[in-house]
Design a protein that fits this description.
single chain; TIM Barrel; eight-stranded parallel beta barrel; globular; 283 residues; alpha/beta
Length: 283
């Protein structure tokens, strides 16, 4: 099926596999109760070569996090992950890792998350889409492995389609069990639907529906994008993107992401800077 997520826009990133020496502690399970909420704005980064652009964009829009693709399935991009981590830290931003999973080799996919955590990334986001359809056992196995390794479920997140009812073969429920940090629905113009449909009816409406039915949906943190096609060649104008920003602003999310550095034109940055900011106080 067509992808509305991270694999489509530029194809899978190629990076060298390799073993990682532990440079920091695992994301140890030290918290109880509900996960701490995310606050701020996150810029998603697909290619390490765009790290400086991602940092520039984050600083321009009042961003707090950079979410970098540290691996794909069972491959960990060790050198690129370390380089991006160092640059993001130097810029005073919070590094999160994300990785694309099929759940067909869950132990290897779990190792990418574990190695990212050991490197110091403060959160891990699993991108799970149609390729993982029907692979609930694989998703559950991945979850067991990362928890056994000591990763904190409150620091684990996942991203997938917002129209959950049309993708019930994707193992959302299995992901919910160990990704207690949050669910990040991909609210993209590639769906060719109105912003209020994708954001309001799908992302927020479906989250509320399945939270009630399943009882275990983690917090909701939407992701926006500024292109209409799978290859990100058809960009949104400022006016078109403003409609998406306004639709999201109506829900006042504590945290949202923008996918991605390199496909979000600079003319849109002021809109992202205004999104989520309190209105000016009259003098």
């Amino acid at each position: 099926m067509p992808s509305h997520g991270r694999a489509g826009p530029g194809g899978p990133q190629v990076g060298p596999p390799g073993e990682l020496e532990t440079t920091g502690d695992l994301l140890a399970v030290t918290e109880s109760g509900p996960p701490p909420p995310l606050n701020g704005k996150g810029v998603w980064l697909l290619y390490s070569r765009n790290v400086d652009l991602a940092i520039e964009m984050a600083l321009a829009i009042g961003g707090t996090h950079i979410l970098y693709k540290t691996g794909d399935r069972g491959m960990f991009f060790v050198e690129a992950a370390r380089r991006v981590y160092d640059r993001v830290r130097q810029a005073g931003l919070i590094p999160f890792a994300w990785t694309f999973i099929y759940c067909d080799d869950p132990l290897a996919e779990a190792e990418v998350a574990i190695k990212s955590a050991r490197m110091g990334y403060e959160g891990i986001v699993f991108d799970i889409e149609g390729q993982a359809g029907g692979k609930g056992v694989g998703a559950a196995t991945l979850g067991q492995r990362v928890l056994q390794a000591g990763l904190n479920p409150a620091r684990l997140y996942y991203t997938s389609f917002p129209n959950i009812w049309q993708h019930l073969d994707i193992p959302y429920r299995e992901m919910n069990r160990f990704c207690r940090g949050g669910f990040m629905p991909q609210c993209y113009p590639t769906f060719r639907r109105l912003p209020r449909t994708v954001i309001g009816k799908w992302a927020y409406g479906e989250h509320a529906r399945w939270s009630e039915e399943w009882g275990d949906m983690p917090p909701l943190y939407p992701i926006l994008a500024a292109y209409k096609d799978e290859h990100a060649t058809q960009r949104l104008s400022a006016q078109e993107f403003l409609e998406w920003a306004q639709a999201l602003a109506a829900h006042d999310p504590p945290f949202f992401g923008i996918y991605r550095a390199g496909t979000t034109d600079r003319e849109l940055w002021p809109i992202l800077a205004a999104l989520g900011e309190p209105p000016p106080v009259p003098i």
